[in-house]
Amino acid sequence: NQRRRAMEKLVIDECEEQLSRYDFSTYRAIILYGDGWNPGVVGLAASRLVEKYGLPAILLARDGDSMTGSCRSVPGVNIHSCLVAAKEHIARFGGHSQAAGLTIESSKFDALKRAINEYIVATAPVESFIPAIFYDCEADIKTVTPQSVKALEDMEPTGFGNPPALLKSEFTICETKRMGSDGSHASFTAKSENASRRGVWFGGGSEISSYRDTAVEAVYAPSINEFRGEVTAQLQIKAVRSTGGVGNMDIDREEALVHGFITQALYNKPYIGKNASIGVESLKQRLSLPEGVLIVAGDSQSARHLASDEWDYPPDIYMGRYPEGPRPFNAICVLPAGDMPEGYDMIACAGLPAWLVSSKALDVTGIDRAWWLDVLPGVDELRKVYVACRLATRADVSYTSDRVLTREVSRLSGVYYISAQAGLVALDDMGLIQYDPNPVRLSMLPMRKLDPLENQVFGVIAKLKAWGVLSDDRQPQ
What we know:
- By secondary structure, the chain is an alpha/beta fold.
- Helices cover 30% and strands 26% of the residues.
- The protein has twelve helices and 19 strands.
- A six-stranded parallel beta sheet has the order 12-17-16-13-15-14. A five-stranded mixed beta sheet has the order 1-2-3-5-4, sandwiched between helices. Strands 7-8-9-11-10 form a five-stranded mixed barrel.
- Helix 1 (2-19) crosses helix 2 and helix 9 crosses helix 10 (402-413).
- It starts with a helix and ends in an 11-residue tail after the last helix.
- 38% of the residues are buried.
């Protein structure tokens, strides 16, 4: 069993490496091959890929001039019919609508891939490729008890034709914690008006923090947790999403998102250029398919403006981060930090200049500029931040976080919080202070006479402050 798992992992790891360069906007099936793959495990690996990517998967083990493999599919795509449509490229095959096996000549791989993709595009509805999870019923989490879980277990064994019970509930995620040796899993407390339950989310370690103190709806498998002799019921998360959308974000949370976004953007020293533009209606037409468009919103108001429209396929909403999923589904990211994911056909920016994000991004016209652009520092505010840094370093105080330090500099300087943060980054780049956000550290460097307008970071700040105000630089092209 351990040997089988090792062989399966080898296949999946090699598939993931190939999929990092896969054109998901063109292909409606994952069709891959590898040398040295064990034909006995490619079916299991294909099932894993179908579950993760929501696309049919065909994996082939190449042995010289021949390839042998397995197919697994999604509801709405009859994989056996796909093979029938491409039979001229196949030596032999057999199976049913959701699983099949096949053998081909190695030289026929590319032709097979094209033929199957063309058939799927022509015959399968778009909805077949949007991952969905089906649940049995809605329930209050107070009904999830050791007794009710035991009653569900009495219906085992589960499997094909008798899947395990899945419930959907609304609750707030609290007290989050990453688990596992690499932090890839998560635990949390699910709270409703009537009860609280422990929740676990396998594979959700990197996402759990974005749901902290957030009202969600989740699909989960109720299960039993036994720890130190205590038996309790828990929720094993299968899918989760926020119920509030963008909502009315409080200023403290939005400031925190701006803090992370602007710090990363300024340190990256973006090239200030002239990006093309797109209107909201044209953007809406591009969203007629469920994937391929990434929208970066400069504040929650910009995101609400877009999210309020009735798109054919509503974009997913991400606060302070980019999507981490394997496929480029349409997304609105409010003030995201981190690395931008690859695979998107279009990147658009709403409420802030596109050049701040990417030279290839488009400016979305018809949306007000983000509020925090108005409070970025000018030369006078920068001087005040510099004086405040001197006062802050003289005080016998330890700053527990970057935000605590920025708030103190904001208080001492009398400038807005966002202005203080941008000023810290600019002064650090000018070599007048040493400022490290993580771990937080601030110290003064020898005084020098400098012109802020000659500094690259402050030049970016000045351009941001003027964007959309001094000239009409967002006309559609």
